[in-house]
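[recover] target loaded
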């Protein structure tokens, strides 16, 4: 029975170690030494750069040293004051650089769209100005034609007035001539027979 419990405990220990393992980061402002034991009295077996991610495996309550495993697979102890829970700047740097690159690309595309939009608006504005200029030219031409037609109309109206006035004068003149001729004929007509009678009387005598 005891042997079975011992075997079960031995099988559980690796899972226990994995359960207590937690991601941690070396502080950005230090260069930590990796010791073989939970204090600086143990020999140095390596170093970890500032900001490097590590996995916390254990912690000594007395010395507050933390057992970690670094990215190279080395296991050792580091002073707990050099360990932080928040992701270090060094660890976040690649993602920050990627975000910065994406932001620059996004801004670049926004600038391109803005420039294209401004170019389109400028082109449309130039087209509208050109069309407006053509409309003004057509309007000025219509005004010139209208003024020309008005002058021609005035000239024709003046000619018609002159012609009508002349026709009235001709009518009055012709009427006066006809009337005068009638009067003269009326005066001379009675005098013609008297002259004949007088001549006949002279012949008889």
């Amino acid at each position: 029975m005891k042997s079975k419990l011992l075997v079960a405990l031995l099988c559980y220990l690796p899972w226990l170690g994995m359960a207590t393992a937690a991601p941690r980061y070396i502080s950005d402002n230090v260069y930590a030494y990796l010791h073989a034991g939970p204090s600086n009295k143990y020999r140095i077996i390596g170093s970890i750069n500032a900001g490097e991610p590590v996995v916390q495996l254990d912690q000594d309550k007395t010395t507050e040293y933390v057992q970690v495993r670094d990215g190279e697979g080395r296991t050792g102890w580091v002073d707990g004051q050099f360990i932080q829970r928040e992701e270090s700047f060094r660890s976040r740097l690649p993602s920050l650089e990627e975000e910065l690159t994406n932001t620059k690309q996004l801004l670049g595309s926004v600038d391109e769209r803005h420039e294209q939009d401004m170019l389109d608006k400028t082109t449309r504005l130039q087209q509208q100005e050109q069309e407006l200029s053509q409309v003004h030219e057509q309007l000025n031409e219509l005004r010139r034609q209208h003024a020309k037609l008005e002058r021609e109309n005035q000239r024709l109206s003046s000619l018609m007035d002159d012609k009508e006035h002349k026709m009235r004068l001709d009518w009055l003149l012709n009427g006066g001539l006809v009337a005068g001729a009638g009067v003269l004929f009326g005066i001379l007509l009675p005098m013609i027979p008297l002259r004949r009678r007088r001549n006949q009387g002279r012949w008889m005598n």
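[recover] notes: Strands lie at 22-26, 32-35, 44-48, 53-59, 65-69, 75-79, 83-84.
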